[in-house]
Amino acid sequence: MNSNSLNMLAVGDIILGPDAEAFFTYVKPVLDAGDVLVGQLEVPYTKRDPEAVSLGRDPDNLQALVSAGFDVVTLAGNHIWDAGVQGIEDTMAWLKKHGIAFTGAGMNIEEARLPVIIDCEGTRFGFLNYNCVGPKEMWASRDKAGCAYVHIITHYELEYATPGGPPAIYTWAEPDSLGQMVEDISRLRPLCDILVVSLHKGLVHMPVKLAAYEHQVSYAAIDAGADLVVGQHAHILKGIELYKGKAIFHGLCNLVAFLPSLVPKPGQDPKSWAARRREIFGFEPDPEYPTYPFHPEAKYTIIAKCKIKDKKISQVSYIPCLVNKQGQPEVMKRDARGEKVFEYMEKITRDAGLNAEFDWQEDEIVVKGS
Is 275 contained in some domain? Predict the structure, then answer.
C-alpha cells in the first residue's frame, strides 16, 4: 500500500497470560491488514514480582504483541504500578528489545510524557497517552517511575439538602495537569501528520454513562491539535462522538483480557463472589466466561479504523467483534451477529446523547456526523 492510502487500527485494553497468541487467532488477519496498529497494555510484566508471576504476567507472554503486529502500545493506566518500579522497568525493557514503541509511562514524568512518532511510508503518526483514573501512586513524578496523567477532581453536591441522600456528581480536570497535556499535544503537532491521543478514562463496568470530565479532556485534546481520541479502561464499550469533525471513541472495551484471577478462588462460594461484584459494580459476570469475568455486555468490542489519504484521516470506521466464551475476540461480518454489535453501538451512542451515526460499508461500520 502506498503512502497515499494507509490504515491505522486502534484497540482497547490488553491483558495477556500464558498461551497468549491463541487469543488473537480470529482477529490476527484483520490486525495484519493494518499499516499502523496501537493498543493499550493494561498491566505490567516482570519476573521480579511474586504477585505478577502468580498472575501469569511473564514478559515472555508479550511475544503475542509482536506476532499480532503491534507497532505501538500505550501504558498509562491505573495498574501500571501494580508490580512497582520493576514492573514498569521490565515491561519497557522488553518492548524496547522487541521493537514495539510505547508512550504514557517512564522512569520519571518527563519520560512518561514523551510521544511516540512512527513513520509509515512517509506519513508520520504521533501518539500520546494519559491516565485519568485510579490512585495517585500510579503517577510518575520528577524522581519516580509511573504514568503520564491528567488529574481529575470529583465533587459530590448534596441535592435537596438531605443528609445521606443521593448527590449530584461533578468531575473536571485539574488545570495544571490538563495544561501539561495540551502543551505536549501542541509540541507534537508540527512533528507529525496524524496525531492520536489515548486516554485511560471512564466509569468502569458501567454501560452508556460518561463522566463530565471525559468530554472536557477529549475536547481539550482536539482543540490542542489531536486528530483522533481513543479511550480505554472502562472494560465495556462506550459511545462515539464527533467534535469539530474529529472522532472520539470514548471507550474501546477490551481486545484480549485474560483474567482468571478474578474468578472465584478455591473454596470460595461463587454466589457470594458474584454478589460482591454486583454490590461493587452492579453486575454479575457470566459464569460461561471463566477467564473473562467482565460485564455481560463486554462481549461486544470493536477495532477502531482510520483510513489515511494524503497524510490525513479520510474516513473513520470500526470493525465489530464479539468475545467468545474462551475469551477470544471474533471479527464479525455484516450478518445477524454483526448486526448485534452495530445495534449495541448505535444504542449506547444514542443513549449517551452523542452525535455519531453509523452505516455499514461492506463488513465494517463507518462513523458519520449527525
Answer: no
Q: Residue 222 domain-assigned?
A: yes
228 contacts 218 by C-beta, under 8 angstroms: no
Rounded Cα–Cα distance for residues 114 and 105 (Å): 9
CATH of the domain at 16: 3.60.21.10
Host domain of residue 234: 6-259+294-369
pTM: 0.96
Domain tally, the chain: 1
- The answer to whether residue 267 sits within a structural domain is no
Give per-10-residue mean pLDDT for the chain (370 aa): 78 97 97 97 96 92 98 98 97 98 98 98 98 96 98 92 86 98 98 98 97 98 98 98 98 96 78 83 89 95 98 98 98 97 98 98 92
**Cell for 31?**
490486525
62 lies in some domain: yes
